[in-house]
Design a protein that fits this description.
The complex is a heterodimer of chains A (about 120) and B (about 325). Chain A has about 120 residues and is mainly α. Helices cover about 70% and strands about 0% of the residues of chain A. Classes of the chains: A mainly alpha (about 120), B mainly alpha (about 325).
């Protein structure tokens, strides 16, 4: 049972590497974008996990309750904005992929490289 | 019980993540990514991060999926299989995973209130928010007031990304190999009765909920970022149902571009107003009759600015991609 508390961190590590593996091994540019999104989500999970306090609730203060325990609000603020920034950058990446496809007719990295060398 | 549910969702996350990497059909991969976001949102909810869960559900599972699908409409849906060996990538990934798992044994116990992360500034915010800002939602208080500078920076990142998408997609393709779907769009889902009727019922409620989340941010989970994602999800649903042109009639490109700029200017304007009234940049205390009243006005305006810009950027990006598909 003692190691159960580390499960969140392990899933973080595994997800991070799943995302990294997609970026490293897949020549398809959309797959790379999705891999980056998974990588990003894993980091979000790590931050939110670290802010969790045992027996706490969401950091919305309740009047008249003196000894309520709240989870850490600081990582939540950081990740909240990071998610929206994440989609904006994902959209920018997708726009660039769409343009690459229009110019090269493919989104496979190795084919793009071959077309470049010709 | 909640621990077991958490472990279940975390395991599902890993399985879905592997599914995304393994799927050769990119449509399947994108749909799995939407599912992944939904599971991530439930995980955030279990971890007491209500605001973050709301954002992830609206942005990750909703808007991101639609954007990726409209991008995929312009690309090949099948990933080409290569015979290339991936042994090196697998080895690196597994070795790094094991190394990181080994490192987690040095981390503080899960949920430890005495962990360094929970001992630095967090208790100060929790203790002083009531006295200084007097809003129940500490996340909103930090986002809009204590760390207003950071939020302004994040808003400009989103602004820049939106402008970047417009610049990249503004170039007309000189290459006619790109398949165009001339009639698919203008119609929307007009000929599909069930989604159309149900969707029409949903759109006003989604937008209304977005506005509630926007203006109720001080008291419950919510704020400009979530509201922007929700309102744009409502309008995107409208565009999918009624077709692009109908949606652009309701909110034209010009209006959307205005919204992007107006929201950012509102945020900066509130900051500068503080300077003129004798405070610091983004110091809301001088805006009202009492410091706390000033904080309330400042938070409301700043969150409104964030909401307007996020709505504008997300809708502009969506329309930029769809215009590419239909050649409008």
């Amino acid at each position: 049972m003692e190691y159960l508390g580390y499960y969140n961190y392990w899933v973080f590590a595994i997800l991070l590497m799943i995302g990294m593996y997609a970026v490293m091994s897949r020549p398809n540019l959309i797959k790379k974008l999705l891999g980056m999104a998974i990588f990003q989500s894993a980091v979000f999970l790590l931050y939110i996990t670290m802010g969790k306090v045992e027996g706490g609730t969401a950091p919305i203060l309740r009047e008249g309750v003196a000894d309520e325990i709240y989870s850490n609000p600081v990582p939540q603020v950081l990740i909240l904005t990071a998610i929206v920034v994440g989609i904006a950058t994902l959209a920018l990446g997708l726009a660039i992929v769409v343009r690459i496809h229009e110019e090269y007719g493919t989104i496979e990295e190795d084919e793009i490289r071959r077309l470049d060398q010709q | 019980m909640i621990t077991l549910f958490g472990i279940f969702v975390l395991s599902l996350l890993v399985i879905t993540g592997i599914g995304i990497v393994r799927a050769t059909n990119l449509f399947a991969a994108v749909m799995l990514a939407g599912l992944f976001s939904l599971q991530m949102a439930s995980m955030f909810f279990i971890l007491n991060a209500a605001d973050v869960a709301l954002t992830e559900a609206a942005v990750g599972a909703g808007v991101a999926t639609v954007l990726l699908l409209s991008g995929l409409a312009l690309l090949d849906a099948e990933e080409r299989r290569t015979g290339r060996s991936r042994r090196l990538a697998v080895t690196v990934a597994i070795a790094t995973t094991l190394l990181m798992i080994y490192a987690t044994f040095e981390k503080p116990r899960f949920g430890d209130p005495l962990a360094p992360a929970n001992q630095h500034v967090a208790p100060w915010y929790l203790e002083n928010t009531t006295e200084l800002v007097d809003v129940p939602n500490v996340v909103t208080a930090i986002l809009a007031t204590f760390r207003g500078y950071d939020t302004l920076g994040e808003l400009f990142v989103i602004f820049t990304a939106g402008v970047g998408v417009l610049f990249v997609l503004a170039v007309r393709p000189h290459n006619t190999r790109v398949a165009r779907l001339p009639n698919a769009d203008a119609q929307g889902l007009r000929h599909h009765l069930v989604p159309r009727v149900v969707g029409r019922l949903l759109v006003p409620f989604i937008v209304l909920f977005g506005l509630y989340v926007q203006f109720h941010a001080d008291f419950g989970p919510g704020g400009g970022f979530q509201a922007g994602a929700l309102v744009s999800a409502g309008f995107i649903l409208y565009a999918l149902l009624e077709g692009e042109s109908a949606a652009l009639e309701a909110l034209s490109f010009r209006v959307l571009a205005g919204m992007i700029v107006a929201g950012a200017l509102l945020f900066v304007g509130v900051g500068i107003a503080g300077v003129f009234l004798g405070g610091n940049f983004l110091d809301y205390a001088v805006l009202g009759s009492t410091p706390v009243a000033g904080q309330h006005i400042g938070i409301l305006l700043v969150e409104l600015g964030v909401g307007i810009t996020v709505t504008g950027v997300l809708l502009t990006i969506f329309h930029a991609f769809s215009a590419r598909v239909t050649g409008l």
